[in-house]
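Page header: ASSEMBLY MODEL / three components / 560 residues total.
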Amino acid sequence: MPTRAGALVTDPTAVAGGGQLIGWDDLAPWVRTRESSGDGVRWVWPDTASFYPRLLAAGVRVERCHDLRLCHAILQLATSDPWPAPAWLAPPPAQSAAPSLLDDLTPDETPALSEVVAEYERQLSALTTSSAPSRLRLLLAAESAGALIAAEMHADGLPWDRDRHDAVLTAELGPRPAPGLRPARLEQLAAQVRELLASPGLNPDSQAALLKALRNAGLDLQSTAKWELRDKPHPVVAPLLEYKRLARLLSANGWTWLDTWVTPGVDGRPGRFRTDYVPGGVVTGRWATSGGGALQIPKAVRAAVVADPGWVLVVADAAQVEPRALAGMAADEALASAGRDGDLYAGLVASGVVDTRDRAKVGMLSALYGGTAGEAGAILPRLRRAYPRATGLVDRAAQVGESGGTVRTWLGRTSPPPGPSWRQVQGRAGESDAVQTDERRARSQARDRGRFTRNFVVQGTAAEWALCWMAETRRRLRELPPVTPGEPAPPVGQPGEGRPHLVFFLHDEIVVHAPEHLAGQVVDIVRESARSAGRLLFGTFPITFPLHVATVTSYDRADA
DNA sequence: GCTGCTTGCCAC
DNA sequence: AAACGTGGCAAGCAGC
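Prediction written out in full:
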């Protein structure tokens, strides 16, 4: 079934098949040919998430694109003259599990070439009339590059050893039980808890029943949360906390998870964990994920993340990205200087601003999150004195949010405005017959929003740095040679086209899967890309983004 | 049996 | 002492 190639535009040469129909079978080779022509094609298409997986399945990768759906979302909030998304741009599609070139778009999802071009031109025009076009252009490019990376990481998968995972579970829980039964260790702990609470038949998984049993045993508790249980002097606390820890491991990352999310290994190579990354899935611009809980892989099971034979994992995480991003935005030389040599929190101590690293961290995070309670609140005045520019910036962002305004990240991602119910509550408090409850609710809600906008500018700018870091890393990795027969065996299905490739991303951390003999080059690339991202965002302002980089065979060893 | 809500906990 | 940002997700449970 032929598909209109009009869904595809190339830039700057604008070919697009001149509106002729190109079937999916012909499309992939056509894209491949254009891509290798060396003329720097940027593909403009409605939606990377629905389109690119088909190309990947056909073995075709592209260097650059402009994702109209993601860019529309950014521009909508950024422009003073928003326009509605065309119908063919509206649905945020779920990535299909097994993309196929035979899966065709339904006709009404396939826009005419002219419509795609019109939307693209509208976006370019919105860009040029924005207050900081070059930054916004960078954001759109980075967002689009992220979309490519997300699809590629899904296609390549995170190498995951089922046997090692099983070994972790067995060591903690006992052997895998028959369906519907608790593992031995968990059953043992449950029995102990029932005994100590004199509650035969208690199901410790039921919070309501558990809370009742705990209270009957004389414990003064408002909930069954572990922070509340932790300090109670009662013999049930230790086994119960251990039960909760193991029950969590079982339900979140147990054997069922393994069967659901990790494909079997082949030929002595580990299997693959595939989540759906959702670029721009968080209001601040962070990525979300869908499936398998990829944002929360606990330390305990990271031992199961292993490189293919002859390959390694280059694990890089960036230290204190948010305060560094803040220093860059605020042009706060003092804060930038505190982070110059590595650990920014240690730098705060060395500068005499606070006396311990822990306090520096707590205080700084409070400034970024809007915390006021306890020790953090006491440190804030010192931070304000030492770093008036940085703290002033987040304080102003909070004020704008409290009064119902919108704020922007460094590259120009705009926070959503408050919704009608927010405005209604604020309006109610201003009416002449407003009671104390109305005023209290309005104040509390305003402060909530202030904390949101305060954090938005920092978290969002940090996400922009991370996106640029990852996009730069990808660009440079693509220039490395693919492994050839005779060298270490290429992994199953040639992930990353046999080249070092990104396999994991988590806010301020990336993992590259690479042939062992290229590990050194990959480390250099990751580091140089971090410097490059810093320059892209902040030019010559002297803010550094130091990394912890480890070359390992399994993910859990990266912490050392 | 399904849906939506709450609780609790994991990650940054 | 659980306030202080962004998420995903499993389990229990009420209601349909």
